[in-house]
Design brief:
Layout lengths: L5 E5 L7 H15 L4 E5 L11 H7 L9 H11 L3 E7 L7 H10 L21 E7 L4 H6 L2 H13 L7 E6 L4 H7 L1 H14 L3
Helix pairs in contact: 1-8
């Protein structure tokens, strides 16, 4: 049986966070099932999220210019995978700035989107895309005020639109420090993310 290849895009500045536990748990699950993976740790690699003027002009068809080496490497990692897994916290109801910039710089015209001349985009369609998202608010609060619907719109209907056969969003809620201590979420969520990793194939 051929195992799917997973590429993880991870974004959190602290190794003391529950989000870090999610990443470690998920990787443990992959390892237990011998599922091959690569990982881009946006903070550890000091990924630059800022789009340059040249990149902006290229994306708007003002100039033709080659992709920078860091972007080519990331696009190759994606195309070598069958499954993408994004692991990150909600900062102001969006991904951290480094991950927002990752989408802006890596999901380029010609890769995620067709060229204006009609030549097709080169990004492969993933078998699945997973989002493991930590949030300070409760799941009920996120659902009640429409934030869960907004997350699905942003990440499923926009950023991964047309490039994945299925998507899974896993919300790990109530991760603020006092809730973490009171509810023992850290260990519970690590085990849950490990189970998700085991079931990736």
């Amino acid at each position: 049986m051929t195992r799917p290849k997973v590429h993880i895009i991870y974004a959190h500045p602290s190794k003391k966070s529950i989000t870090h536990e999610l990443k470690e748990g998920y990787i443990n699950g992959l390892n237990e099932k011998n599922i091959p993976y690569t990982i881009t740790d946006l903070y550890e690699s000091n990924f630059n999220p800022d789009i340059t003027e040249e990149e902006y002009l290229r994306e708007n068809n003002n100039i033709a210019s080659p992709l920078s080496e860091d972007i080519v490497i990331e696009q190759e990692k994606i195309n070598n995978a069958d499954i993408l897994t994004f692991i990150f916290p909600l900062f102001w109801m969006d991904a951290p700035a480094k991950l927002v910039g990752y989408f802006a710089r890596v999901f380029t015209k010609g890769f995620k989107y067709d060229h204006e001349d009609g030549s097709p985009a080169t990004m492969k369609t993933m078998d699945a895309t997973n989002f493991l998202i930590s949030a300070g608010s409760s799941y009920e609060e996120l659902k009640k005020d429409g934030k869960l619907d907004a997350l699905e719109t942003i990440f499923i209907k926009d950023r991964m639109a047309g490039k994945t056969k299925k998507t899974n969003i896993y919300i790990f809620d109530e991760t603020t420090h006092h809730k973490e201590l009171m509810l023992n979420n850290r260990e519970k969520y690590r085990l849950k993310s490990e189970k998700i990793g085991k079931n990736t194939d």
